[in-house]
Batch of 2 targets.
Target 1
Amino acid sequence: MGSEAALLLWVVMVAGVVVGGQSKFMVYNTSHTIVTGKLNVHLVPHTHDDVGWLKTVDQYYVGSNNSIQGACVQNVLDSLIPALLADKNRKFIYVEQAFFQRWWRDQSQAMQLVVKQLVSSGQLEFINGAMSMHDEAATHYIDMIDQTTLGHRFIKEEFNVTPRIGWQIDPFGHSAVQAYLLGAEVGFDSFFYGRIDYQDRAKRKNEKSLEVVWRGSKSLGSSSQIFAGAFPQNYEPPSGFYFEVNDASPVVQDDPDLFDYNVQERVDDFVAAAISQANITRTNHIMWTMGTDFKYQYAHTWFRQLDKLIHYVNLDGRVNALYSSPSIYTDAKYATNESWPLKTDDFFPYADRDNAYWTGYFTSRPALKRYVRIMSGYYLAARQLEFFKGRSKSTNTDSLGDALAIAQHHDAVTGTEKQHVANDYAKRLSIGYKEAEQLVSSSLACLVEPASRREKPTTKFQQCPLLNVSYCPASEVHLSEGKSLIVVIYNSLGWKREDVVRIPVFNEDVTVHDSEGNEIESQLVPLVDAYVSLRNYHVKAYLGHTPTQTPKYWLVFAVSIPPIGFSSYTISSAKKPGSSSSRSSVYTFNTSETSTVEVGQGNLKLTFSTEQEKLTNYVNSRSLVKETVKQSYGFYTGYNGSSDKVPQNSGAYIFRPNGTFLIKPEEVSSTIVRGPIIDEVHQHINSWIYQITRLHKGKEHVEVEYIVGPIPINDGTGKEVVTQITTAVDNNKRFYTDSNGRDFIKRIRDYRADWDLNVNQPVAGNYYPINLGIYMQDDKKEFSVLVDRSVGGSSILDGQIELMLHRRLLLDDSRGVAEALNETVCVLNDCKGLIIQGKLYFRIDPLGEGAKWRRSYGQEIYSPLLFAFCEQDSDNWINSHRPTFSGIDSSYSLPDNVAIITLQDLDGGKILLRLAHLYEIGEDKDLSVLTNVELKKLFPGKEISKVTETSLSANQERRLMEKKRLVWKVEGPSSENDDSKLSRGGPVDPAALVVELAPMEIRTFIIDLVPNLVSSV
Amino acid sequence: MGSEAALLLWVVMVAGVVVGGQSKFMVYNTSHTIVTGKLNVHLVPHTHDDVGWLKTVDQYYVGSNNSIQGACVQNVLDSLIPALLADKNRKFIYVEQAFFQRWWRDQSQAMQLVVKQLVSSGQLEFINGAMSMHDEAATHYIDMIDQTTLGHRFIKEEFNVTPRIGWQIDPFGHSAVQAYLLGAEVGFDSFFYGRIDYQDRAKRKNEKSLEVVWRGSKSLGSSSQIFAGAFPQNYEPPSGFYFEVNDASPVVQDDPDLFDYNVQERVDDFVAAAISQANITRTNHIMWTMGTDFKYQYAHTWFRQLDKLIHYVNLDGRVNALYSSPSIYTDAKYATNESWPLKTDDFFPYADRDNAYWTGYFTSRPALKRYVRIMSGYYLAARQLEFFKGRSKSTNTDSLGDALAIAQHHDAVTGTEKQHVANDYAKRLSIGYKEAEQLVSSSLACLVEPASRREKPTTKFQQCPLLNVSYCPASEVHLSEGKSLIVVIYNSLGWKREDVVRIPVFNEDVTVHDSEGNEIESQLVPLVDAYVSLRNYHVKAYLGHTPTQTPKYWLVFAVSIPPIGFSSYTISSAKKPGSSSSRSSVYTFNTSETSTVEVGQGNLKLTFSTEQEKLTNYVNSRSLVKETVKQSYGFYTGYNGSSDKVPQNSGAYIFRPNGTFLIKPEEVSSTIVRGPIIDEVHQHINSWIYQITRLHKGKEHVEVEYIVGPIPINDGTGKEVVTQITTAVDNNKRFYTDSNGRDFIKRIRDYRADWDLNVNQPVAGNYYPINLGIYMQDDKKEFSVLVDRSVGGSSILDGQIELMLHRRLLLDDSRGVAEALNETVCVLNDCKGLIIQGKLYFRIDPLGEGAKWRRSYGQEIYSPLLFAFCEQDSDNWINSHRPTFSGIDSSYSLPDNVAIITLQDLDGGKILLRLAHLYEIGEDKDLSVLTNVELKKLFPGKEISKVTETSLSANQERRLMEKKRLVWKVEGPSSENDDSKLSRGGPVDPAALVVELAPMEIRTFIIDLVPNLVSSV
């Protein structure tokens, strides 16, 4: 007997059929649908299940560690199914796929069949459908796409459905990229969220403009707009309608034989709450989010009350209550043919009340943020190498993909989770990395072998994930013993790439040979004390041992790597004195000396004043930009609001400074390191800030490497450390920050486009999230700063860009995490405050010329070169192996304005390919144009049998998605909203297989390859 | 398709069958049964659902008022069924039928069928099976039997099963009557409980004597013994094994793909806890009570973990874990053939640690305790009248039975519930009373009519439930207008009864005529001011109005009522001066006068010294007892232990006195009221204690009526008011208190038979519950005090009996109720402390002669005469109606040592009859003997077609019950335990229909009557 029969019988059994007799079993009528002409209250049963926050994702799933928070997602899903089976009118939405997938794997086939039927009938609807409900401030758009794709494709594969609705109900502000890219481009019909600025919300409630049409991209305009709704408050039920096990809301007591019968009171409460919401909402449809964090532990408790409310409220008749979903609600809104206010840009920053700007989390846990970003780039590269090798069940990129997906959660990369949970995310990334690293090594091992040996490659590559603290056992070998070190350097970008690389070495006399065997120029830069202690402390902390030997030098050399490919470099001990690397000249001077020092071997030269706080000249002899630039450090003291009437401290979420303090560089020596490839200026800013300003031959930007921490707290106050770079650019309050590393959005200090801003936090209220960079301009120049992870930043003074690099706080900010953001690193039980090491990059260009650097170099920051090392006893490695490789046609290179953001081997001979135009409309005179990519050139030696363009999350055909897209009407004269001049790439001709990309366009394809036509790779 | 199929399918669906594939669905092996030679851990999933405590019974059922306590019994049962269906090895016990019946009525027929199947398969077992888990200290055995019967018969009727196990896991001490009467006599095979004295428990753990054979009755001995087990601690799971939704115990994380896999740790925890318990337990069977108060809100959360524990613990193999029940556990214990320590007497008083004697609740809420007792007697009488009239669906005694059943709960009559819950119990009793009152009135109306008019009786009887505060609208009529007042007085005892009754009247000149129309002697006693204010305040408080007129007198007259029948008395205005009632002589004297006053019109005379604190002589000229008796009042100040290391206040549960304070009578006037029928001595003890000492003509006991309250708290301390009656009886620390109004148990001050008592509370630790009375004796005399409700009492000094009458406390005693026991009565918003009015009765007899009074008068106190009033315009009421009636054969009367404790019309022509021998073995030389009752005489005019003797709770044939009774072995030489001299009544000859009753024996019968053979009644 099929499970359909079982399903049916259980429904009969539970919902019952009153056959008559003594039982006073009550049957509730819950079958109501929309009633035109009445106020329709859409009851949307839901649970909001954080993929980690106070507990880890697995703890939330199995319900362990309940002393921290009583929450068990397994309960939610376990209890949901019988509750839905009991009444076919009941509905539920489920959102977070990281949890759902865990649950799904635990189920019997019989249960899976039942659930499939519930999904197919619409009783259970997947909403949002990503692995996690990602943050929208500190996340990179590539990560957002990847983790959404993981969730969406699972849903498609298991249930053959595509989520229709965006549901970002908890993230702390909302990004333009979320609205247009992860909304419209995913094929969503609407997008709902809970948190917008309190001032904004007040105005929108007043003007009934909580629901809008949001056009998030200037470049894509109405072709990527979406219906978007902010809830009247949070994502919880109206007060008094919480029905979790043991909740205090009054249950509907409708048994006249028991005491406290209260049906009329509860109906009156319901109607009053509905009318109150109707008064701030357009159309006669309102949505009630019936649930909140980790609710429906026992789903029955909610549904029993909702059944009763629907039954009695509709008997009452004043309003119409129905089981609904965001999809049904969206369709109902659409059916009203209403016009909606237009919303552009984004909803940042978010404040939930005076002095409570959630702009601290843009920087919170900077190490975790950096780790996520490194893994993101690595995951992109690893999937390329996985494709070249062919996907394997055993060693693959799946764990890393899962770990990254979870890390995008709005309490993960945000830094707003408890410390043990942050550790859990890091652990997952580490495990995922380890597996991907193995895959990368073995893929490279295959690729370096000649075709004959490819099946059983012998090379064992090592990689160096701790290179950031100068630790690389693979390169730290004594080459004097006749050994060579082979470094295979992989470039995941679609362009040939010229870069300078750095590897720690023991030997003083080494030579570097390129893939052709030619000796190339190299430079030895001494490993300074600041780095040695960084290295030794963290190797001990993370690996449990202290390295016995310390490399004396960074070996620096320039490399050239083909697109989506690698080159190999051989490092060996110098055979003859003259052929070894140049040692850098090192000059140390005291800040008391009054003099200037110029550095830079190429077009860009910087002049440092040795006097503290003196200006630095920035001169580019090519672009003729000349500017005085001053960089400084400072900190804000974390506000202690514990004794205020409405207590508000600075904390993991909230940035609330209590005064600004400039850090004056201490009077200690600075060191100048010079050589043929790089020049560096080392400065001890103070005892806990070390900075290296670095110029590379052939590059026209300044690289600033900083080591910040441990932030001292012995004065009892938390501190939030910023760096300011000050120029004379006359930006008149205006600056630009990226949205999730993609579109730049204009910001104006102390101003909001959507309402008259009441400024109560002149610093915190002007902070914005930065993933790619920030820039400002005047009529001559533009000044850009790029970052290596998400940070918060602003321009608090004209000409100045400020970035928050690190935060260490001693108080909790009362948003639930209940822990002070006080990160430490421990060796055994000796813990000290977290030290952050990072880089930022800046450059000043003539007006109109900055975008090219921001976009192309930004992509290089996101996708750094990938190193794999192996030792070789003899010299002939290069001759016996394939020293260089490109995955694409050797004659081909992607246009400068395009990146392959996904190249992934799907199971079954299908390839997932995403191509991204990197420029916005009008950003660059040459590159902000329609461009194209020849697919055939991307897969040399393989035949493309089919190309299917899909939605961004690759779960439906783009064509069908466009066909069913709801076309929302926008308020106001159509001339104002006309964007018909904007274009998108046209259809892909199946013969030519050329993909057009308009500015900011990302196109996603599933490509069927005929395997191994010619085994050229 | 039958529900069996549905059941089967759901089991398949949930428990699943792994058909192979991607799912890693886990199937746990939970099929383990007992393994000989291993330690067997019997896991007993259970919930303990208080039938009212912090919330009312209905609030607990529907889950309202959750802000007080998150608890919803509906959830428990709703969630239980699918959890049991999911795995046929899972078991659950359900206890409290008040909840189960509420739930059952809500279920569909389909669900009822499923549940019946679960009960029949043993997965769901009813344990205890009474309506509530009654208290064992403040409850009367008749109430215990009634409420157990209600539950057991429902279970029998709906499920055809009989509960096998007593389960009194939470009551605060355990009574002998519970063990033998509500245990063995109900047919239970064992009896489990959680709370015994901490010193006792420590010793028993040490000696492995937590489990015993309990022989509760001296009279019935081993024929009524039961296997009885105290839990090692409370009734909760071992620490760390709580699995309620959101509980903090670590769940078994057995998914190796998730973090924090902990199977071995949890198995180790389990084994350690098992071994620890095994070390204090005989045999290799231990029971774990897997649940606690209101747990299994979502049963799945428990069963999921228990499944895993059973699976993995048994894989581990060190111990054997199994789903079990108290029945299975009992059978396993029995199968070991072990001998057990013998336990006699009871487990009172209960202390859970030093200075924490739960002896306060013996008296807490004395008004509720009295209300329950009044209703209990009324319920007994009302069911008799219901039987005479014939049971009706519309107006019956069911609500009162239900209300009384619930009121026996161990947080109801105990006084340990929150105030609003106490109000709820009172409200239920009041509603139940109202319905029963209507039934009683209409039954009496039928019975007073001649046979011809019986179908449509015209008489409208009124009753006076507020007679205790002198309020009786029915009697407060102006008889001068030619009206007569008819008082029908019903006697529910099986003996003819001579008593003195009191009715408030307006008129001064009234005469009283008996059923034969003869004028009888009567006396008018002035209604004193103390009563007038009591009356006016409480009528205003409870009825909302102030009576316009106040009766001046109590009309007092002696009555004689046939067994199980009534007589009618006519009160009319006196036709001629000489025939009216005697007015009492009233003499008031001041305490400053030095003189003595003698009162008493019969054998008993008391001499009061008018000087305060002077002794009173007690002289019985018949029995020649002469004694000096002193009665005094005092109070204990409630201990404030809030600043102690282990805080322990005196509170609703716990009596912890902080010093004793004698209340010295104030120097005010006392009043002597004398008359032909009663003499009274009125004394203002102080401004809040008023006392009347009353002697009735023809009675040889002293009746003391007290009005205590409001207890003053303006000094900021709570007080517990006691009265002491001091004699010269040389009792040498020994005294006797009843067990639930039935067997008397010897108490020895500062001593326990079962262990060496460490005395830390010399007063509170010597308190015992008293329901019927307390007595002491020396070699000449015995001094007995009977009470009108349950109270706490002791003999703290030799010769003295102390009773706690009232408690008003300002602090909570930290046992969960979280409220101070500070009862008030409010008129509008003006509240004052509760005033208690009550009676106690004392008598001094020659040694060996006290029992007869205690037993027979005790039964009269329990079953007071029932008054029904009607007005009559003419004199001929008696001629036109049946003025007197007896429900039994007019020639018959029950033996003096037997009471009918139940006579109840069951549906379907069956009668429930319970006959109780009232005497213990050896208690009275004449009455402690085998006696008999002629059933035929009890049902005159009806033919008995069948007599079936049943268990006490009338849910199984006694014969079958005896047949399957487990015979437990007792430790020690059999000579010590031999009680073969004890006897019980023999089988009932179906022809003779004579029931033999041995001392203390209660026999229960279902009697089939052939209806209306002769309509003699």
Target 2
Amino acid sequence: MEGAEATRIMIGVNESTIKGYPHASISSRGAFDWALQKIVRSNTSGFKFLFLHVQVPDEDGFDDMDSLYASPQDFKNMKYRDRTRGLHLLEYFVNRCHEIGVACEAWIKMGDPKEVICHEVKRVQPDLLVVGSRGLGPFQRVFVGTVSEFCQKHAECPVISIKRRADETPQDPVDD
Amino acid sequence: MEGAEATRIMIGVNESTIKGYPHASISSRGAFDWALQKIVRSNTSGFKFLFLHVQVPDEDGFDDMDSLYASPQDFKNMKYRDRTRGLHLLEYFVNRCHEIGVACEAWIKMGDPKEVICHEVKRVQPDLLVVGSRGLGPFQRVFVGTVSEFCQKHAECPVISIKRRADETPQDPVDD
């Protein structure tokens, strides 16, 4: 199996809801760390990470209540700022890969994360999709919806869902 | 990550329904091959396989309509034969690991495969459970039940379900 093409691991990554810009969510960092420790191990040339960050557009296009958008330029600035946040998030993962010496690619898409992830799996055909999961109970899941469950059902490649460690779960488990 | 303990991959394996004794099912061979090619790759010292074969006891204790069981010895023979079948199945996987140079363990349990697999995950705490799946449609699933879906929901470790390749699916997809 030497010389074979690298195993391409796609990971969906998102921002933390509590740690503030530009931190990665606990569950996406957890999924990445798990893949490094348990799958890649010391075989850094055997794998390539594909980081997908899906940005969710706000319904009304505004995501900051304190700002006033009065001109086309304001909207451009907003889009620019969103894009910058996304790039900073991906930068964290790309930098870590660079330090470790694993190849990677990273990109941003807009839309509903679960739909976009499955669509991108179809398009780029990774060998494996790793998604972090908050490990919510059935009651919380009804309101929050889980990306990982949807992907396990619908993604056209093998999927591993990595639950957050108990000692990393915030007080409100919906936070991440 | 050099020197870390090997990543322990548990795989549930079963007999083929069509290829006859002592062939492994298409989906369990597929799951094993996938794990070798995509996860283990050339890093044979970084992984250890744990093969679990769950034997399903027949409701009435008979699994061969042509045989007559008239004495306690007959039952002993039957149990011995079942055990032998299971050992031959595991032998296939253990031999392949030996050829490749990956460490492994293998054992047999009796019971309902999905329940036993989840119970054994709790007991041996692998890093990862890989299960083969026939990739049945929703209609077939109602009647057949799928071990992989149950394990993805209930096993206390990350689970990858590997669907059979289209070109390996038998005419009746319930066969394996």
